[in-house]
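Hi support team,

I submitted a single chain yesterday and got back a structure, but I'm not sure I'm reading the token output correctly. Could someone confirm the output below corresponds to the sequence I sent? I've pasted both exactly as they appear in my results page.

Thanks,
R.
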Amino acid sequence: MNGAKKISEDIYWIGGSDKRLERFENIFPIPEGVSYNSYFIDDDKTAVFDTADISVSDQYLENLKDCLKDKKLDYLVVLHMEPDHCSLISMVTALFPEVTVVGGAKTFTIMEQFFPEAKDFKKLEVKEGDTLSTGKHTFHFVAAPMVHWPEVLMAYDDASKGLFSADAFGTFGALDGGIFADEYDFEKDFLSSARRYYANIVGKYGMQVQAVLKKAAGLDIQMLFPLHGPVWRKDIAWFIDKYQKWSTYEPETDDIIVVYGSLYGHTASAAMALASLLRDKSGKNIKVYDVSGVDVSYLIGEVWRCKKIVLMCPTYNNGIYPPMESFLTDMAALSVSNRTFALGQNGTWAPITVKLMTEKLQNLKNVTVLEQSLTIKSALHKSDTESLEAFANAIIEA
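Hi R., thanks for writing in. Yes, this is the structure output for that exact sequence:
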């Protein structure tokens, strides 16, 4: 059954949602599913912006054919060559052999790596500043390298005042019938997924996102057409402000998170005791996470949200507890900065994780590692009350 959704008089969403996929990029858990967005322009000349993942191919092609009816497809515009958006290029060009494929020079280089037959496609190469007219619509191309692949283009449409933004402004989460952000309670239904998507997929490229936001500031953007998640037609400035914060590594809140690793529950008990003290003393929202039980992508999302991060774990094989070490490695890979860290350790005979974690964190840009730390020997006891109080106070006062 046709699943295309009308966005405006002549723009249609023709993508699909996948609620069965367990992991995005085979890395990030997505219990909320994911949407693959593609957009059809029904103008004097017809155009499609990007395709979709192979998993939604049947629905996608049905939507496209239904929108075209008896028309031919004039343009296939490829803004991003990642497989979850380009998998159906070969199918579309086979169905519509006269279509002109539009993309940048790097787009076509990558395209031929995925689809050797692309060397014979009818092509139109574009770059930043070039335009494509379909009649009423004129699309202005904007280069967005490393947001988050090097070939990425965006396209601004004069007619709808919409920005086709590739992977920018996207989010995890399948679409439940509605395609507009204002059809949902976005903060409740999508914000944490959008943050986790940004932090893990795009987070490393804050400078590049900032460059694109500066370009976008000069445009009258009244709609956002991302490749994942809902379309924006209201409150766009609110969501762009989130990207402004996220791309400058500015915390959204001054909340505190406590992330612990624990072999037998003793460090976990200490982490819970600390969280209780922090909540009582500060009145702030405190979230506690087990680094072994929570996928690291959720922890990274919380790092982007919060100003202060407490890390507590035991020494393991004379090193950092492995899941905590993986978390630290991920933070470094994603260029986490502008955060305050407080460190606690547990060790029955030779606790050294505060020292080792400090060494790793000092490689991050513009982070503060509190001098005050917490050390417990095997388990937290009443004799540790003063040390725990001092640790909590140092975190709150930082």
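A quick pointer for reading it: The radius of gyration is 24 Å. Let us know if anything else looks off.

Best,
Support desk
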